[in-house]
Amino acid sequence: MALRNILKDGDAALLKKSRDVTDFNARLHKLLDDMRETLIDANGLGLAAPQVGVLRRAALVVDTSVETEDIEEQIIELINPEIIASSGEQEGAEGCLSVPGVYGLVKRPRLVKVRARDRHGREFEAWGEGLTARAFCHEIDHLNGIMFSEYVSRYLTDEEIEEMRRERDEDGA
Question: Which pLDDT score is estimated for 172?
């Protein structure tokens, strides 16, 4: 496994639509393994292949509903994912590894069901609620060349971001 460089906002590759994965081979597995290591190193909740310069429909999402200290057990690999159902609405702070330090308020569905394939090509479905639903939407948007900034109703100030971090650190302590 190897850390991959995360492309930053302004890179044209982030605005391109990704192509379907058709070969579920060692090359795909290497990409997924590298993305996993990169995601964990960046302390993110999701990472899409275009963010590491690969225009294929592959993404990782951290399922925050899985109660474990091992981040590896929380990561869901999504190949050729599509949202097949959604309900409700949530508005909350959203950021992106490709836009470090920037957060904005974004409306997303509260509950999302995705259909995807695993690294071996087997189809599966997964539900996400709250933060996981937000991550599903965010990463699938990346696969379609859409950045979260297109949905931001208001960017958060530095003070609001600092308060958000303090609350997160207090919750995690």
Answer: 59
Residue ranges making up the domain that contains 29: 12-172
Using one digit for the tens of pLDDT, what is the confidence trace for 99-148? 999 999 999 999 999 999 999 999 999 999 999 999 999 999 999 999 99
Residue 126 · residue 86 · CB < 8 Å: no
110 falls within a domain? yes
Cβ pair 147, 96 in contact under 8 A = yes
Low-confidence ranges of the chain (pLDDT < 70): 172-173
Is residue 37 flagged as an active site residue? no
For the entire predicted model, the pTM comes to 0.93
In a domain, 7, yes or no: no
Helix ranges, 5-157 (H): 26-42, 131-143
In total, how many domains does the chain have? 1
Within a domain: residue 4?
A: no
77, 94, 129, 139: which one is catalytic? Answer: 139
Cα(57)–Cα(128) distance, integer angstroms: 19
**141 within some domain:** yes
Using DSSP's 3-state secondary structure scheme, residue 32 falls into: helix
Host H or E run for residue 94? strand 90-96
Using CB atoms within 10 A of its CB, is residue 102 exposed (0-12), middle (13-18) or buried (19+)? Answer: middle
